[in-house]
Each structure stands twice: as C-alpha cells, then as structure tokens.
Amino acid sequence: MKVIIVGGVAGGATAAARIRRLNEHAEITVFERSGYISYANCGLPYYIGDVITDPEELTLQTPESFFKRFRINMKIHHEVISIHPERKTVSVKNLENGEIFEENYDKLILSPGAKPTQPRLPGVGIDKLFTLRTVEDTFRIKEYINKNHPKSAVLAGGGFIGLELAENLRELGMDVTIVQRPKQLMNPFDPDMASMIHNEMRKHGIKLVLGYTVEGFKGKDNGVEILLKDNPSLQADMVVLAIGVTPDTALAKEAGLELGIKGSIVVNDRMETSVPDIYAAGDAVQVKHYVTGDDALISLAGPANKQGRIIADNICGGDSRYLGSQGSSVIKVFDMTAATTGINETNAKKSGLEVDTVILSPMSHAGYYPGGKVMTMKVVFEKETYRLLGAQIIGYEGVDKRIDVLATAIHAGLKATQLKDLDLAYAPPYSSAKDPVNMAGFMIDNIAKGTLKQWHLEDMDKISKDQNVVLLDVRTVGEFNRGHMDGFNNIPVDELRERINEIEKGKPVYLICQSGLRSYIASRILEGNGYETYNFSGGFRFYDAVVNDRALIERAYACGMDYKK
Hints:
Elements: E1 2-6, H1 9-22, E2 27-32, E3 38-39, H2 44-48, E4 59-61, H3 63-70, E5 73-76, E6 78-84, E7 89-94, E8 100-104, E9 107-110, E10 114-116, E11 129-131, H4 135-148, E12 152-156, H5 160-171, E13 175-180, H6 191-203, E14 207-210, E15 214-220, E16 223-228, E17 231-236, E18 238-241, E19 245-247, H7 250-254, E20 265-266, E21 278-280, E22 285-288, E23 295-296, H8 301-315, E24 329-333, E25 336-342, H9 345-350, E26 355-360, E27 376-382, E28 388-395, H10 399-411, H11 436-448, E29 454-455, H12 460-464, E30 470-473, H13 477-481, E31 489-490, E32 509-512, H14 517-527, E33 533-536, H15 539-558
Parallel strand pairs: 1-2, 1-9, 2-5, 9-21, 11-18, 12-13, 12-18, 13-14, 20-22, 29-33, 30-31, 30-32, 32-33
Antiparallel strand pairs: 3-4, 6-7, 7-8, 10-19, 15-16, 16-17, 22-23, 24-25, 25-28, 26-27, 27-28
Helix pairs in contact: 1-8, 6-15
C-alpha cells in the first residue's frame, strides 16, 4: 500500500506515524512545502518573546529523525501542485530546483492546514507587515525585531495568536496596540467574560482599539501607517495581521472535492472526502460541532491530531470515527489563564437553544490555605433538559483543571445538575472539599428544584425602571460605599433578620452581593419569611468588571482612541 500525505505538522505527521505503527510495510511519503515537517505551532509567539530561546525546541521531528524511526519519506520543500483522482496521482514541484514530477498513490491524505487570512486591502505585502503561521514566519519576525529594535507594534486581530503575540511583544518592552472590528477579543468567550481578558491586557499596558475597521496600510520610512475607517490612523514600527485563518484548500477545489464553510473540505466521520481514497484532516476540514451538531471550522491542534490518527486507523482496515469538535481551549493572558469548552451563551442562542447560565467566583483552592486566588466560571446549560452545553473560566491557577473536567462532562453527556455528583480530588493546596465544578452543579441543581431564581446583567435596565420591585444589596456597609448599583438599598446579610421589616412585602426582591454567595443566603432568609427573591448571577465584582470594560470601550471609541479623554 502506497500512501501520499500532503502536509505535515499535526494531522499529516500524526497520520504518517500511526500508519507505520499499524502497517510495517506501507510505503509512506509526506510532501511538505515548508522546511519543517513537525513543529510546535502553538509555541511560535513564545519564541518571538524569548520565552523559548532555542529555535530547535520548536522542531518536534526532522525528516532524518522521522525516517530513522519510522522509515517514512519526508520530502520538505516539495509542494503538491495538483491532484488527479481519476488516475490516482499527484503532481509535485521540488521548490529547491523547480523540477515537477508525478507520484501515484493508493491512499491520499490532505493535511494542508490553513493560511493567515489576507484581506484585500491597500498596502498588504509591505515589508514591515507580517503574518504568523509557520516557523519561517516566526524567524522573519524575530529577525526583524533583532535587527531593527522596533518600539511599537499594531496587531490586527484579537484571537489566540493576537493575544499571545501581544503579550510576548509587550514583554520585550514594545508598545503594543490591538485593533479589530469586533468590540471584544476572543470570540469563543461571551462578551461579559471577555471583559476580564480586556482588563488584564490593559493592566499590562496593551492598548485595545476595538470596534474599528482597518482600511489599509502605508509604508513609511519610520514604520507603518494603519488606516482606519472614519477615524485617525495609527502609527507603528511594525504590523502583524492576526485576523484569523482560512482553509488552504485550492488543491482540493481544483480536484473536485466537495467544499463547505469558507471553502473547507467536507469529510464524513471517517475523515473521508467526497472522492474515494482521499482523506483530509486538520484546519482545512469542516467538522461537526460536538454540542450543536452544526457544521463548524475549529482550528485547534488537538482535533487535528485525533483526525490524523482516525485516518490512519481507517486506511489500515479499522473503523474509527470522529465524533466532532468541542472547541476546548486554554490561553495564557499575562498572569491570568482563560479557558473555554463547548459553546458560549451567545452562540447557543444563535443556534436557537433556550439556555440559562450560572456565574460564580470560587477560590482556586481551600480559602484557609495560603495563596488561593479567585476564578470566575460561567457554565451554560439548556433550560428544561439541563443539558450541559459549555463553560468559560478565567482566573489564575486551577483553571485548566476545571475546564478539562467540564469538557469531559460535556463529552460524557452529563446533565449540568450532575456536576454536583462528581467525585473530584481534594487537598487544601489544590482544591476545596466543594470543588468549583461541584459548586456550579449545586447552583444549577438549586435552579432545577426552584430553590434559586436568578436575574442577569441584561435584566438590569428593566428592573431598574420597575417600581414594583425591591432592589437590595446585602454586602457590608463599607463594600456598598465603595461602589454599588444605582437604586439599590443596603442591608448587610448578617443584619437581615433583624431588619426584615424594612423590606416591603408583596414585591419581588432582587438581590446582589460581591460574588453571589451572601445574596443567595439572603434569598433563603427572605424566602423563608414569605418573600419572592431573585439572586444576581455573578455578583457585584463581576458586574463592575463588565460595566467598566464596556464604558472604556465606548469612551475610547467616542474619543477617537484618545485614552486620556
């Protein structure tokens, strides 16, 4: 059996190694147009920022090491320029000498990945404008920085690469600005959760120019001018386009393969394309979202590796299936960690789902053990069925652990109420006897049983104008005086029983405290005394972060990015 693989890195290299483990006699050749067949794509920004100092650390395997261990022919600087399904061959160009030749296959695997989205804008292509996708891109940026010592950079785009690169350039001492059309960074997060990412970026000196449309670039002797629609331009010594990636599927299109979202390759759950004996994996393929069942593009290393393994199994006579992508991801944002899995509230509603959420701010480990830090969790679930749909967590330590537990629960089909039943490891340096994941389950279980009724940030305008409700803040007097929502009266929870006559009966009581815990206790006191209560999801700490972030974005937008106004 002869197998040709187009592209290395995650999907292609994984498939190649797995085929060899399953079939010692298969003839396997990988054609890779770059000079690297297996590298740590996610580590590239950290090499630019000198966190990773040895460039060889980025290379997981070389053609020589791959051949020595697996007897796989890794042909770097070889580009497959066309596929001929009718005669089961590919045309290949040797990029070092220009030679073009044809190679036959029994099975063909496409793992071309995705390329940085290149908008058709004036100035794209000037020498101080970069993209970051490959090792070569990384070396190009690093060489420019080492040679020219730029003092400022503008990053167009606020996704994973944009944030990681912003942090690393900032750590090098550069003045860094992120500009993009959406008014939030990191689309996998809901806007309210993204506000905490915004705050952390600003805290470390990153300027956020959100809600602006880039219209082009002009090269200057001393840098780049970034042209913005209906606004003054930005100036920087260098620019990096990080506005997303597009499936690199020109080959597949020319060969007549069925294409889907943004020109991605359509595959079935065996990773087979519409053409017999051709498979595809990685960032170039359209997948099913595990939670919604909708078609999706999810460009992450984990799914690509799994897909490569599945292809290998099937080529070698097995029957492996890809169940869909869940979008589980985690990112370092300076001192913070932000993670997500499943779908967020915004996308759940777009998919037509009736959803509810809980927002809580537990400690990373037992409060009495030194060093614990607060994390903020948002768990999304379907009303009525309590199907667990997604989660987002932002904090400092223990975030990755909890998101993986929640990702596993979603994959296993657990209901959100069942999170309370999970038997999770506990010791004071690592967790609490009631783990944050359990706490989310307790809250959702209370909602299911009618013990807890909530109100959310989007309800604020409505209830603040309602004369037939009571608004009550149950924090301490000191906390209340340092900041509170307009219209709320203050009765500390520990004084509530003695002062309960101050609360008008017959009106629903809308409660808030710092994190949601004391206001829940207050709701139980009031419910026990005949009141109808609603507890604010997230608490004042969450409310304050979201509202302040939105105000900063709108102020910067209104003032033409002059943050001093």
